[in-house]
Amino acid sequence: MVQLREKDMGSKELLPLAIKIRKMTSGRALFFVNQDLEVALESEADGMQLGEDAGSVQLIRNMGGDSLLLGRSVHDLEGGKLAENEGCDLLVAGTIFPTASHPDQRPNGLELIANLSSEITIPFIGIGGVKPHNARSLVNCGATGVAVMTAITEAQDPESEATKLRNMMEIELNG
């Protein structure tokens, strides 16, 4: 899955980028747009990622239709349960490990992943400080997968790093 998360761009600037990413991911990966329903629909994204405090899932589902997958960011078990009860299709749970993108945020650790695993039934991925050396621990605690940013964007060979992470996850998830 590829998520377009660009908080500093308006819909007009974001749409051409979303369309370009959709073309690149079509048939290869799910494509989600962060928080912007108009851009998600116009770019024919597979889904939309909502912040923890975003609007009503039901309202967004009514406007976007049943074919648009809805994800929600959560930071605790209560948020995960609420998102599942509201009808979200998946969760992004974090912050798990210390991360430069949220230096002032205290990590929730693997305990959040384990708690979600025991209480919810929809898929969820862990985010925040995920690197090749710790990604497996999230899956071992019950996460469906992991989300990474700097592990790839700051790698000397981003394509190789992404392939390494993907292969490791496939082995872990498929036994």
Using the coordinates shown, work out and report the CATH topology of the largest domain: TIM Barrel
- How many beta-strand elements? 7
Q: Number of domains in the coordinates? A: 2
Number of helices: 8
Report the sheet-strand fraction. 15-25%
- The value of Rg in angstroms is 16 Å
Main β sheet profile: 7 strands, parallel
Provide the succession of SSEs. EHEHEHEHEHEHEHH
The average pLDDT score comes to: 92
Describe the structure.
The longest helix has 17 residues, at 158-174. The protein folds into 2 domains: 1-50, no CATH class; 70-174, Aldolase class I (TIM Barrel, Alpha-Beta Barrel). It is built from 8 helices and 7 strands. The model has no long low-confidence stretch (mean pLDDT 92). The chain has helices at residues 11-25, 37-42, 57-64, 77-86, 109-119, 135-140, 150-153, 158-174, and strands spanning 2-4, 31-34, 47-50, 69-74, 90-94, 124-127, 145-146. It is an alpha/beta fold and 175 residues long. Helix 1 links the parallel strand 1 (2-4) and strand 2 (31-34). A 7-stranded parallel beta sheet has the order 1-2-3-4-5-6-7. The two termini are 21 Å apart.
